[in-house]
Design brief:
With 457 residues, the protein is an alpha/beta fold. It folds into three domains: 102 residues, Rossmann fold; 146 residues, 2-Layer Sandwich (Aconitase, domain 3); 154 residues, Alpha-Beta Barrel (Aconitase, domain 4). 31% of the residues lie in helices and 17% in strands. It contains 18 helices and 18 strands. The longest helix is centred in the N-terminal third of the chain and has 15 residues. The termini are far apart.
Length: 457
């Protein structure tokens, strides 16, 4: 079977007048070629050439490859294209297993000295801001990405594996690899490439576009420096950080080195960069400030009574907000999935205290379900019991959680002011001076609380 493949942009400028005539009606009556107009063009052009099929798609290896496979093109087939079509066109035809046959166009000869070619990178912000890799060699990176619609092919996976074999990704660097299609992913598995990636310490994702699609594997964070095989690096395109664009080989080599390098310049040991220091913390540890005021063991505040058991972390902080990483932004979503308390964040005040039932915080282990209360300025949560993981997360974050099995004895009403002593567990309703006893902080919990968190703040 012979199939004519037409690269529209190249075709428009290079094919002779008789071919222009075959598509004249379509071109004259539309401002673009697509949808039913594209189908008409394909049909007319195939008839003009006397062949079975004509494919008219834009540039992009994956798009062309999919179009060919949809028509059942494979080994033994010939695919016709124009001589000056996009490189992606020929690559897609070859990847499909077919043979490329070029249409006779005006003959041109170009003599190119490829010996002078050097690996290039695009600097952050503009894909066309390209420089020799040597100009940015040694630039520290935090992450690397191999994939996207431009470099998620099996040939890219093989090139990356050749660099990564018997090597390790540098400490402090995350290398993410995303094969473009499930077929390519399975081929990687079959050829042992996945095993090479895993041994090197690569994060391999399920197949897909990734990288430039918000929320997918390959996005970076604020201040993060990434070297990527993506197709564009405009600000925000691949996340909030800085993105250098490079070939799969340069990206893989840089991931091993910990900085931007070419394959022939991978150092024996990865580049190590000093972690930005925190002088104030160091001084505090080496020479503790005796005058610093310790955190109070007694707090007072207005109470919110949420008379429910088994309030899980989805009710506290729904999973649709998990992409938010700034604690200051989390408070506004507190309890917006808890029936009857959807407006809690709008009514809560700095210093409020929550009183609730059994098994508070059951469910997933998400830290946001603790941090959202910190963001709102909630002082503490008093419950009959807590989910084990939630309680540990709160203690580690120095957020006061207190178990009190005798809450009914305090005659509490919504909006009452209470006072509680973390060390003794003494809980007093300041409206009527009724007292009940909660479980006091353990020595470890109080130490973490005073320290401002398990890691200190």
């Amino acid at each position: 079977m012979k199939v004519a493949f037409v690269d529209l942009k190249a075709q428009y400028y290079s094919i002779k007048a008789d071919i222009d005539k075959a598509i004249k009606d379509v071109v004259e009556n539309t401002s673009f070629i697509g949808g039913p107009f594209l189908a008409t063009f394909e049909k007319n052009y195939a008839a003009f050439l006397g062949i079975k099929h004509c494919i008219g798609v834009g540039n992009g290896t994956d798009a062309i490859f999919i179009a060919l496979k949809t028509l059942g093109i494979g080994k033994g087939d010939e695919v016709i294209t124009v001589a000056n079509s996009f490189i992606a066109t020929s690559e897609a035809i070859t990847d499909a297993g077919a043979r490329v046959v070029f249409v006779d166009c005006d003959e041109k000869t170009f003599n190119i000295d490829v010996a002078g070619f050097k690996p290039m990178v695009s600097r952050p912000g503009e894909p066309h801001d390209t420089v020799n890799v040597s100009e940015v060699t040694g630039t520290k990176i935090d992450s690397a990405f191999i994939g996207s619609c431009t470099n998620g092919r099996i040939s890219d996976m093989r090139k990356a594996a050749a660099v990564l074999k018997d090597r390790k990704v540098a400490p402090g660097v995350v290398l993410k690899i995303v094969p473009a299609t499930d077929e390519i992913w399975k081929q990687c598995l079959k050829e042992g490439l996945i095993a090479i990636f895993k041994k090197a310490g690569v994060l391999v994702s399920n197949a897909g576009c990734a990288g430039c699609a918000a929320g997918q594997v390959g996005q970076n964070g604020l201040g993060e420096v990434t070297v990527s095989t993506g197709n564009r690096n405009f600000p925000g395109k691949q996340g909030k950080g800085s993105v250098y664009l490079a070939s799969p080989e340069v990206v893989a080599a840089s991931a091993v080195a910990g900085c931007i390098v070419t394959v022939d310049n991978i150092p024996d040991q990865p580049c190590l960069f000093p972690v930005p220091g925190r002088p104030a913390d160091k001084k505090m540890k080496d020479n503790p400030d005796k005058s610093r005021h310790p955190k109070s063991s007694v707090i007072e505040g207005r109470i919110w009574i949420i008379d429910k058991d088994n309030i899980d972390t989805d009710m506290i902080y729904h999973n649709r907000y998990l992409a938010i990483t700034d604690i200051k932004e989390m408070g506004q979503y507190t309890f917006d999935n808890l029936k009857g308390f959807e407006d809690f964040s709008k009514k809560a005040r700095q210093g409020d205290i929550i009183i609730t039932g059994k098994n508070f915080g059951c469910g997933s282990s998400r830290q946001q379900a603790v941090d959202c209360f910190t963001a709102l300025g909630i002082q503490a949560i008093i419950a009959e019991s807590f989910g084990a993981i939630y309680e540990r997360n709160a203690i580690n974050a120095a957020f006061p959680v207190i178990v009190c099995k005798d809450l009914a004895g305090a005659d509490l009403k919504n909006g009452d002011l209470i006072r509680i002593d973390f060390k003794t567990g003494h809980l007093e309703n300041l409206r009527n001076n009724v007292v009940c006893n909660a479980e006091p902080f353990s020595d470890v919990q109080y130490e973490v609380y005073e320290k401002g968190g398990l890691l200190g703040r």
